[in-house]
Amino acid sequence: MTHDGPVNVGHLIALESTVDGLRSQNKATLAVLQDILSRLGPAPALNVQAPLHYTPPIPASAGWKKIPLKPSPPLDFDGERSAGKPFLTSCRTYIRLRSEVFDDDLVKVIWAMSYMNAGRAGRWAAREFETEARKERLHFLDWLDFEEEFKKDFLPLNAEAAAVNALKMTDYFQGDRMADAYLDQFRDLICDAKYSDPKTIVVKFHRGLNHRISMALTGMPIGRPSDRDPEAWFRLAVQIDQNQAADDAFHNQVPTTAFAAAPPCEPSTLLIGTDACYDACQMDVDELLKVLESKPVGGGHPTDKEFRTPRRVARAKPAPVCITPPLPDDNQFSALGFPEPGAPLDLEDTPLEIPKVQPPPAVEPCRLR
């Protein structure tokens, strides 16, 4: 013990000196940091959200009672595969809203099977109850096991492949339907086909749209949705369809002025009752004059031997006479007078001067040297 005392005192002194050195270093480091912070300026305010205060719920009065929900129960199911998915969805909704009634999964399964009372579904449920009577338990482990068996027997077989094939064909096209009905069917096909790529969904949706809506979407200069946002395309297509339906209804209510067709003209009875022998349109001038001159003159009635004229004789239309107005004397382009046929020609007595023809000059023959 005599040797340990001085050694321990030395260790304590060394530790105290070391601690004092560390304290001095910490003070120096703190001073340097304070200097740096003072040079940088005031620290910005941190975006710290204020703590949320929990508000306890107001206790219900003793006289009040909680009103239980009364959801619609599922319809009776006959085993049709096209109605299997809606029936299962209805069962899930009812169980979720009335969870306090269903204590365990066995109650859920038996309750759902109570609505399977017709067709294939009724026979399926009867077999399951017979199995329970023999083995004293159902072969379903829980509600999820019941759903899996139900999907195998009552949902469409190969739903994914059928949906993919339908989206490759043209049967799902909108046609004359409203955009809402087309969108509901398209959502079901996309869900069954398990498509997740947004561009593929947009292309398939745009391909099946009505031609008018498709052209309106294609010609949009601004506001075109992104190809990775199918929901924006769905909303825009429904809006355009509703606008076009409202526009068509407005134009169908505008009255259009309809002009009544004129009744057909009845043929003239005068032309039909006229004898061809007295039709002035088919006579020349001489025949027409003979007919008019042969008309009896007198106040008495003509005898059977005399010539009878029709009550109305068509008159020949006179030939048009063109009268040329006189032209002024100072007009250099005035028409020349033309003598009437049969009139003697006034010839002047002055004889016509005949120009004299001069003979060509004589040509002297050249002599050869």
Write structural notes for this entry:
With 369 residues, the protein is mostly helical. Among the domains are: 81-154, no CATH class; 159-250, no CATH class. The N and C termini lie far apart (187 Å). Residues 44-55 have low confidence and may be disordered. α6 crosses α7 (179-193). The protein has helices at residues 4-40, 84-97, 105-113, 119-135, 143-154, 159-168, 179-193, 198-208, 211-218, 230-253, 269-273, 285-293. The protein is flat and about 180 Å long. The protein contains 12 helices and no strands.
Helix and strand arrangement:
Blueprint: H1 4-40, H2 84-97, H3 105-113, H4 119-135, H5 143-154, H6 159-168, H7 179-193, H8 198-208, H9 211-218, H10 230-253, H11 269-273, H12 285-293
Helix pairs in contact: 6-7, 9-10
Total strands: 0
What overall form do the CA principal axes indicate? flat
* Structure classification: mainly alpha
Task: Supply Rg.
Answer: 59 Å
How far apart the termini lie comes to 187 Å
Helix content: 40-55%
Number of helices: 12
Please report which band the strand proportion falls in: under 5%, 5-15%, 15-25%, 25-35%, 35-45% or over 45%: under 5%
Order of helices and strands: HHHHHHHHHHHH
